[in-house]
Every structure is written in C-alpha cells, then in structure tokens.
Amino acid sequence: MLETLEIEPPGAARRAVIWLHGLGADGYDFEPLLRDWELTEQLAARFVLPHAPRRPVTLNGGMLMRAWYDIYDLNFSSGEDREGIESARQHLLDLIAREEARGIPSEHIVVAGFSQGGAVALHTALRFARPLAGVLALSSYLPLANGLAGQCCAVPGSLAIRMDHGDSDPVVPFRLAERSCALIEAQGYQVEFHRYPMQHGLSPAQLPSLRDWLAKHLGTQVGHGV
Could you confirm whether 106 is annotated as catalytic? Predict the structure, then answer.
C-alpha cells in the first residue's frame, strides 16, 4: 500500500475522496486547499492523498521523482508506459478497497487527480464495475485511450465525470483534453467539461465550482467555506 497523507473528519468517516497529485509533486500538494474547503468536517469525509512512488521519468532526462508512471514525451509520439499506467491503476484500486474495508461503500468514494493523477483517476474509474460517487480530472487527459472501448465497464449514466482544463495549457494541450472527453462520450458517458482561461494549474474562479461539485456528488450540498 502506498504511503498516504490523510485528512480525517472529527468523527467516523462516511465518505472518502482519493486525490492523486501530479508529476513531481506529492500528496501534500493539495492539502491546504482541501483543508480550506472544510468538507472534511461538513461531509464527514476522509481525504486520502497518496504519494506516488519515485521513478526515473524519461521526459525529464531520467530524473528520479514521484510519478504515477513514466512519460516519454508530451506528444505521446513515443508511446505510453502501459505497464506503469496499469500499476498506478492497481495502486488506486487498492486504495479504494481499503476505504471499503474501513466501512465506506464505493458509491460514497470520489477519485480525483491533477494532471498525471487525473489521468490515473479517469483510466481507473472507467474500468471500475462498481458504482463510484464520481471522478474528477483536472488539467488531465485519458491515457491508453485507444483501448477504452473494449475495457470500460463503468455503467454510463451512473458515473459522474468532470474534466477541467486550461485553454492555454502548455503541458497537457487543451486539444488532448477535448479529444479525451470526446472519446469518453463516444462510449455513452456524460462528461461535465469546463474550459478556463489558464495554463497548467487551478484558477481562483474555478475553486468554488469544484468544491460544490464534490459536495454534490458526495451526497449533500453545503455552504461555501471559502
């Protein structure tokens, strides 16, 4: 099991969000934002922020860093790290299973991630047969997209999917996010797609909407904490 940072509610957790960081970051990356949202207290939600394993990343000259899988180039012209992506999917499945073992049913679990972490969240959620509360992918894309049609087993209409992307993202091109969205929708899923005037990150204008989306799909509406 991966090392994780966990934000616990005051009492027993009844919901969970598993949030995967981006390339080169760690589980602490989104901790301040998630604490500021105060959803832990208001929703009795546990936030699970795992740290990816350290591995050499080809894109960065073989530098050792936290990464869910290897990235060869940003255009994917050299292919994708299929083995690494599948290993990351298994890590996420293990984290989901641990939350279920701790008493939280899968339909009360959101899987989320930024950039590479969002790619793992999308890849896993679409291949997860049991219900989830939703999947959130920020500044991200769908990896191994050509294999989706034969592998997706999440029930269309029951999986809430949200993708947010900056229209001037220099890391994950906006067109790649659009293509990923179209491929997912071609399999019968509905995607809530949000375009923001930003690069590779989060926009202040985006944050209240993200918080409300999490509150809604974890089962309740709450007032704004920030």
Answer: no
Q: Which CATH class is domain 4-217?
A: alpha beta
Alpha-carbon gap, residue 212 to 150, rounded angstroms = 33
169 is catalytic: yes
Q: Where are the domains of the chain?
A: 4-217
DSSP per position, 89-142: HHHHHHHHHHHHHTT--GGGEEEEEETHHHHHHHHHHTT--S--SEEEEES---
* pLDDT tens-digit series, residues 65-118: 999 999 998 877 779 999 999 999 999 999 999 999 999 999 999 999 999 999
pLDDT digits (tens, 9 = 90+) for 116-132: 999 999 999 999 999 99
Q: What pairs with residue 66 in β-bridges?
A: 54
pTM score of the predicted model: 0.95
- For residue 150, the model assigns a pLDDT of 87
Annotated active-site residue in 21, 115, 123, 180: 115
Q: Is 200 a catalytic residue?
A: yes
The single residue of 51, 87, 167, 200 carrying the catalytic annotation is: 200
Residues 6 or more apart from 56 whose CB is under 8 A from it? 62, 63, 64, 70
What are 157's two structure tokens?
């209409």
Asked if 131 and 158 touch (Cβ cutoff 8 Å), the reply is yes
